[in-house]
Amino acid sequence: MKTTDIISLISKIRDNANRFIVNEMDSWGVKGLAPSHGDIIFALLKNEKMTMNELARKIGKDKSTITALVNKLINQDYVQKTRDTEDNRVVFVTLTKKGRKLEPMFNKVSEDLLSTVYRNISQDEREELLKTLEKIKNNF
């Protein structure tokens, strides 16, 4: 493999991971969500409520993209928006009951994804891979 193929390889890994996630969600009966929706739900499972700006920073998307993703999740009753009682300009996003019910699925899909990703890769190789990928990311 040529070293110039790294971006193509990373792109293919991302595509495969996204396909894996969508297929797993389908098997749980969760339809119509993309992995980027899952990023928001996963963040909210870890943090009870977040502003749009916090979500944007957490998952690495711009605020307009987050707004569109959150609106779709609202339409599917997975999340809701509420205004801060002290500062009406601040809008929080929180999970609904339906959204919180996704936690077991998210935990299992995440576990299965990581198991697939790291199959036949030693702990030392994992650590070195993460260091290298972090360096590549920081180069940008």
Automatic annotation (TrEMBL):
The keyword Transcription applies. It comes from the Bacteria. Gene3D superfamilies: Winged helix-like DNA-binding domain superfamily/Winged helix DNA-binding domain. Keywords: DNA-binding, Transcription, Transcription regulation. The keyword Secreted does not apply. Residues 3-138 form the HTH marR-type domain. Coiled coil: none annotated. InterPro entries: HTH_MarR-typ, WH-like_DNA-bd_sf, WH_DNA-bd_sf. Signal peptide: none annotated. This is MarR family winged helix-turn-helix transcriptional regulator.
